[in-house]
Amino acid sequence: MFDVAIIGGGMVGSAIGFGCAERGARVAILDEGDVALRAARGNFGLVWSQSKGDGMPAYAAWTRQSVGLWPVLAERASVLAGRDVQYRAVGGLTFCLDEGEFAARSLFVQRMHNQGQEGLRMLDRRELAELMPGCPLGPEVLGASFQPADGHVDPLTLLRGLQAGMRAAGGTHLPGAAVQAVEPVAGGYRITRADGSEVCATRIVVAAGVKTTPIAALIGLDVPVRPVRGQNIVTERLAPILPLPASAIRQTGDGTVQIGVTSEDDGSFETATTTAALARMAARALRVLPVLGQARMVRGWAALRPMTPDGFPAYAESPTHPGCFVATCHSGVTLAAVHAGPLAEAILTGALPDHARDLHPDRFLGMTHVSSH
Amino acid sequence: MFRRTEPTDCTIVWEGRDLPAREGESLAVALLAAGITSFRETPVTGAARGPLCLMGACFDCLVEVAGVQNMQACLVPVTPGLVAGIQHGARSFEEDAA
Predict the structure, then answer these.
(1) A295: closest CA of chain B, how far (Å)
(2) Do A236 and B70 touch (CB under 8 A)?
(3) Strand A172-175 relative to strand A92-96: parallel, antiparallel, unpaired?
(4) Would the CB atoms of A291 and B70 count as touching at under 8 Å?
(5) Residue among A78, A14, A6, A94 nearest A46 (CA)
(6) Do A251 and A242 meet the contact criterion of CB atoms below 8 Å apart?
(7) A79 vs B: CB within 8 A
(8) Which helix (H) or strand (E) holds A4?
(9) Does the CB of A136 have a partner CB in chain B at under 8 Å?
(10) CA-based nearest residue in chain A for residue B91
(11) Of A185, A304, A338, B65, which is most buried by a Cβ count within 10 Å?
């Protein structure tokens, strides 16, 4: 009998599993395996608060709490992964390429400021140039929003660090089979998997990403989640040209330039890239940094991210299955620090943190509005 | 380290030096056959690197070909007179433009 069984071995499940294991719980992560449609493999690697939580103050506050906890997580994850997760809280930008974009972003920044986002401000072209001397910005870049607390990280090394930390604290990783059933047994629950194996645990956390809806139903929770496709481009490694990460374009610590990311909300579980989308992304990146026209694209790929009806995360404990929780979001990297910290703590003690409680999936009842974040 | 099974039929220029090669073979193979194993210097430590996979995946055989940096030597076919050299550090656009 494990103390906690986590269903899902992606960024969310691994962070919660790591947090529970380091608090002394006996943890098993039930991972579908390499066939899983992981959002973690398509994550852009931003640790990002500036665009999060417009109209949902609990999410904005939860995000800011996570960003505040990130430096400590980064240091620990680097040690556990055996190499630097390349967390750099150098500030983050959202570029504006014409007057309309600049005006719209300015209004957004004002709205976020009114909801408690501190430090976020607009920079004009001159201020951008002062912030990034020598950066070969294209002539169309009029300015950007700038949040000094934002930053970026290598998401794959982070995932490796979280899973290594979970194992180092005595946790067990059980890949290779999907979960089919959950039944109450004395002192907890029995989980049956597609390969016929059974895992028993006192508590269960569903962190199943785009498969959250059917798995959450097994513990009596209605959590509507649909897949939203994000396509990515990565270039060859280049000498430093973009010192700050930005929405949809960043230069990684290894020197590659990552260009993202579409938000394709067509309900399909397909993960193929499309030339049209990649071309659109590349065209915008070239307006930001025209010099990238000389760079070679090494790879393009797509991943599916879980999306709720209002685009915000959902956390809940099941009313019918006490000790069973669900956690889903599309910002598994930014929120990794609160997932490994306060959320893991709460799952072990049985009371969700205030911000997470305000993000209960009951709010989706009757909701047909679809929003993309 | 390697022995050719077929004769060379042309010459390429590596770091200013003429090397025998065979038209159509990969630049990486031509260099290895000539005893060259250091193709590039890493951006991080400056350590020497050479080809690992010879099939376009590892990016360890990066060289400069005709003034263009970051070329995968295993994917560049040899042509008579081809000019190539060591890739020093990361690709930079300033040097490309010059």
Answers:
(1) 9
(2) yes
(3) unpaired
(4) no
(5) A94
(6) yes
(7) no
(8) strand A2-7
(9) yes
(10) A238
(11) A338
Cα–Cα distance, A217 to A121 (Å, whole number): 42
Tell me the average pLDDT of chain A: 94
What gap in Å lies between CA A282 and CA A272, rounded to an integer?
17
| pLDDT tens figures, B18-54 | 999 999 999 999 999 999 999 999 988 899 999 999 9
Angle between helix axes A155-168 and A57-81 (nearest 10 degrees) is: 70
Is there a contact between B93 and A237 if contact means CB atoms under 8 Å apart? no
Distances (CA, A) of A168 to A3, A13, A163, A302: 16, 16, 9, 31
Pick from A243, A237, A226, A246: nearest CA to A330? A226
State whether residue A89 sits within 8 Å of chain B by CB: no
Q: Per CB distance under 8 Å, which residues of B are interface residues toward A?
A: 43, 59, 70, 89-93, 96-97
Of the partner residues B59, B91, B97, the one whose CB lies closest to the CB of residue A239? B91
B93 → closest Cβ in A255, A291, A296 = A291
Q: Is A134 on the interface with B (CB under 8 A)?
A: no
CB contact under 8 A, A294 and B96: yes
For chain A, how big is the Rg over CA atoms in Å? Answer: 20
- pLDDT tens, residue order, chain A (373 aa): 999 999 999 999 999 999 999 999 999 999 998 888 888 878 899 999 999 999 999 999 999 999 999 999 999 999 999 999 999 999 999 999 999 999 999 999 999 998 888 899 999 999 999 999 999 999 999 999 999 999 999 999 999 999 999 999 999 999 999 999 999 999 999 999 999 999 999 999 999 999 999 999 999 999 999 999 999 999 999 999 999 999 999 999 999 999 998 999 988 999 999 999 999 999 999 999 999 999 999 999 999 999 999 999 999 999 999 999 999 999 999 999 999 999 999 999 988 988 888 999 999 987 765 554 4
Contacting A residues, span 287-316, partner chain B, CB-CB under 8 Å: 291, 294-296
Q: Residue A314 region, left (φ>0) first, then alpha (ψ -120 to 50), else beta?
A: beta
Q: What number of other Cβ atoms are within 10 A of residue A320's Cβ? A: 9
A236 part of contact set with chain B, CB < 8 Å: yes
pLDDT digits (tens, 9 = 90+) for A3-39: 999 999 999 999 999 999 999 999 999 999 888 888 8
Nearest by Cα to B58 from B39, B44, B77: B39
Q: Give the pTM.
A: 0.91
From the number of C-beta atoms within 10 Å of its C-beta (0-12, 13-18, 19+), residue A289 rates as buried
